Amino acid sequence: MKLFAPQQFTRTAIALHWLIALLLVGQFAFGWLLDEIPRNTPARGWWINQHKSVGLVIGVLILLRIVWRLRHAPPPALPMPGWQRRAASASHLAMYVCMVLMPLSGYLASNFSKHGIKLFNVVKLAPWGSDDKAIYTLFNQTHQVTAVVFAVLIGVHLLAVAKHVLVDHDRLLSRMWPRAAMR
C-alpha cells in the first residue's frame, strides 16, 4: 500500500471532466432510447433535435477541455509499472479520439440529410451538405460504432479506477475528485 498525497488536476480540468462525464452518460442513454420512439413521427424529430443539440453543447465542452489540457500540463503520473502507464496513456488517447469523433460524426451526418439540426427545437441550422444517403449512413454508422467503442473504453476506465481505489489504495481518484480540489 502506497500512502502519499498525489498532486491534483486543476479545478477547471476537474470541473470539465465531471461535467462532460455526466453529460455523456445522459447522452448515451438518450441516444439508445431514441430507438424506442417510432420513426416518421413529430415526437421522434423533436427528441432527435434535442439529442443533436445536447451533442453540440458537449462537443464545444470537449473542445474547451482539449484546449485546457493542451495549455495546462497534468500532474505527474503516480508510480506504477510501465505497462500500466502505457495502457493508461493509450486508453486516454482513445477516449479523446472518441470524444472528438462521436459528436463530429453526428454533426456531419446531420448535415448530409435534409433535416439538418434544429438547435433545441428553436433555431434551424440548415444543412450545408447535400441530402446524400450514402454519406449520411457513413457518418451515422461512424457515430454509432464510436459510441459503442467509447462506452467500452469508459467501462475499462472505470474498472481501472476501481482497481486503483480497491486494490492499489494509491489515491489516484483524489487527483480528479471535486471535493479534494476545494480544500
Distance between the termini: 24 Å
Radius of gyration: 19 Å
Using the coordinates above, name the CATH class.
Answer: Mainly Alpha
**Largest β-sheet summary:** 2 strands, antiparallel
Strand order of the largest sheet: 1-2
Beta-strand percentage range = under 5%
Q: Do you know the CATH architecture?
A: Up-down Bundle
- Total strand count, please? 2
Please state the average pLDDT score. Answer: 91
Index terms:
two-stranded antiparallel sheet, 2 strands, about 180 residues, about 70% helix, Fumarate Reductase Cytochrome B subunit, mainly alpha, 5 helices
Characterise the protein shown here:
By secondary structure, this protein is mainly alpha-helical. It has a single domain (11-182), classed as Fumarate Reductase Cytochrome B subunit (Up-down Bundle), CATH 1.20.950. The chain is built from five helices and two strands. The chain has helices at residues 11-33, 42-71, 82-111, 133-168, 178-182; strands spanning 117-119, 123-125. Strands 1-2 form a two-stranded antiparallel sheet. A hairpin with a 3-residue loop joins strand 1 and strand 2 (123-125). Helix 1 (11-33) packs antiparallel against helix 2 (42-71). It is elongated. The mean pLDDT is 91.
